[in-house]
Amino acid sequence: MRSIIFPVPWELSLQILSHLSLEDLKSLSVCSKEVRRFTSVVLFSGVKLCPGSVCYFEGGGGLEGVIGGVRSVRIAYPQSTLPGEYINLFRTVTRLLSKFSGLKSLRIELFTCLKENPRILNAVFKVLAGYSWYDGLRKLVVLWMDYMSSENGFTPQDLDFLYSGSRVSGASGGKENKEESWGWPKGLEEVYVANQVMEVWRFRKNMGGAGYGTFGEEIIADLGMCGVRKLKRVEIVALGIMTNRNWRGLRGRYLKADDDDDNDDINNKIVLPGGNDDNMMREMVRFPTVTRLKIDVMKFEKKNLAEIVMRFPGLEELSVLIMLERLGDGSGAMVAKYFRNKVVWKDILGLKKLKRVTLPWPSWVREGDGSGRTGEVEKEHLKDSVAWWVRRWMKMGVDPPEEVRFLQWKLEVGEEFLDFKITKLDGNINGNGNVYWRVENGKRKHPQGLDQLDSLWSLKEVIEKESVDVDVGNWGVEEGIMGGNLGNLDENEDDSKDDEGNDDGGYGSEFEEGEMHFEQWDE
Questions:
Q1: 116 vs 487 pLDDT, higher one
Q2: Which of 54, 82, 165, 420 could be disulfide-bonded to 441 (CB atoms 3.0-4.6 Å)?
């Protein structure tokens, strides 16, 4: 089929139009009905479905003709409203989405603070799972905020929709009821899920029952249970906790990462030895195709990192962020919630393909004597320092990551509090075979928060000098060298090489009013 606009097939015409600016497309759309038919498909390849726009895609709305070309949909209610109106939007939209046969990206925002948000998500996805395009989704973004009790009454239709996601099939022949089976789209390549509560949300589970873990663990485990095998990027932001005493992924004696590259794991699962807990998860689903993972939580422990290493052996980029909270002792000190007497990240050496990594660097740690006391970080806590990273990787005979970044995250401002990173420099500067590293310190988004710097940071003493030289006092950039002798700093080295501009991966971006901040993905 050739088009009237260009003497080429329809599909090629759309590709040509897709390179035009939005202004040019809008100008073309007023030329004629035929031209408008083409430009509308490009203009509306991504749409936002909210109360003001849904009507345009329904019967007689004028945009029914472009539905087949829509690739990206965002579902959102722009302001706070009554629970019934909010649920009605999702009831309407889920029915409407059956027509969007080419959908590849879906974003759902639940920002009305309802305690029913997890039930709404289950009800929405139960309906969507029946559509032909569902398992073809490539990207899924789900965001919701802290909830509050909704005292407003619901209509019977609201309640029917609200509880449809956790309803069980009718019993027959004396057999017990079974939950209906549905879950994550199997073709997903990118997943971003964020909330602001310690709330478990799982597919195929009765939301009235208790879960065996918390947010981050359940999301990752459920992705595997639902047969998702094409993942390339996962981001989980939970401003509650990632794990608690019910954590069941691993036990201390199982914290060794699988170093084999052989394909001897059946269905990408690691079968763990039995333990004392009869209910322990016996299989851990792996995601070898995931190359980018971001976890942003309030609390994190060494065992969580071990689970990440086992589940995501192919990671090239890893970011783990922990927000600082105020100590409850009246001192006003900001604390990274570590529940170990030492901060140890050596499990990450199991990620052989890692290129970029961002990890939290604590200012305080909890004492290991059971007293609950929290002490200031000392040199012994930082044995896994920058020097340790580089030296240990080289002993393994593999290239260390190109960039290692350590952050402190401040709850009050939501941006970097203290920040330093080491970057592998390109080129052999003086021909002696050494590998050069640049250590950069002091990304000060909020200088007024650095009054504790002298007491918290003494990097000239903490970081071993034979590995990296750091000038904290001037917040400058200096270079050290790492070679076969791991030794001696070249004091005559020219420091004139400029530090190249570096994309900070979305950190420190401004918050949108009324929305949750998240890193912008490259489309």
A1: 116
A2: 420
The C-alpha atoms of residue 184 and residue 218 are separated, in whole angstroms, by 13
What's the pLDDT at 133? 92
More confident residue, 20 or 65: 65
**Nearest Cα to Cα of residue 260 among 247, 246, 270:** 270
What does DSSP say about strands 72-75 and 364-366: parallel, antiparallel, or unpaired? unpaired
DSSP letters along 400-446, please? PPSEEEEEEEETTTSSEEEEEEEEEPSS-SSSS-PEEEEEEE---S-
Which are the contacts of 27, defined by CB distance < 8 A and separation ≥ 6? none
Rounded mean pLDDT, 83-110: 85
Q: Which candidate, 254, 284, 258, places its Cα nearest to that of 269?
A: 284
Could you give the CA distance from residue 106 to residue 129 in angstroms, rounded to a whole number?
A: 13
Q: Would you state the pLDDT for residue 116? A: 73
Read off the pLDDT of each residue in 324-330 and give the average, rounded to a whole number: 57
Q: Which helix (DSSP H) or strand (DSSP E) does residue 121 occupy?
A: helix 117-128
Q: Which helix (H) or strand (E) holds 16?
A: helix 10-17
How far apart are alpha carbons 500 and 171 in whole angstroms? 65
In degrees, to the nearest 5, what angle opens at C-alpha 299 toward C-alphas 455 and 210?
Answer: 160
Burial of residue 510 (number of CB atoms within 10 Å: 0-12, 13-18, 19+): exposed
Q: In this predicted structure, which of 58-67, 230-239, 311-320 has the lowest mean pLDDT?
A: 58-67
**Displacement of CA 131 from its chain's centroid (Å):** 26
The whole-number pLDDT of residue 282 equals: 35
Distance CA 245, CA 163 (A): 29
Residue 159 in 3-state DSSP?
Answer: helix
Element containing residue 325 per DSSP (H, E) = strand 317-326
- Cα distance between residue 479 and residue 435, in whole Å: 11
> Residue 76's CB: how many other CB atoms inside 10 A?
17
pLDDT value, residue 231: 84
> Whole-model pTM?
0.57
3-state helix vs strand vs coil in the chain, percent to 5: 25, 20, 55
CA 435 to chain centre: 32
For residues 217 and 222, give the distance between their C-alpha atoms in angstroms, rounded to a whole number: 8
User: What pLDDT, on the 0 to 100 scale, is given for residue 288?
Assistant: 81
Q: What is the largest CA-CA distance in the chain?
A: 85
Indicate if the pLDDT at residue 357 is higher than 60: yes
Packing angle, helices 10-17 and 33-43, rounded to 10: 60
Highest-pLDDT range among 163-167, 291-295, 430-434: 291-295
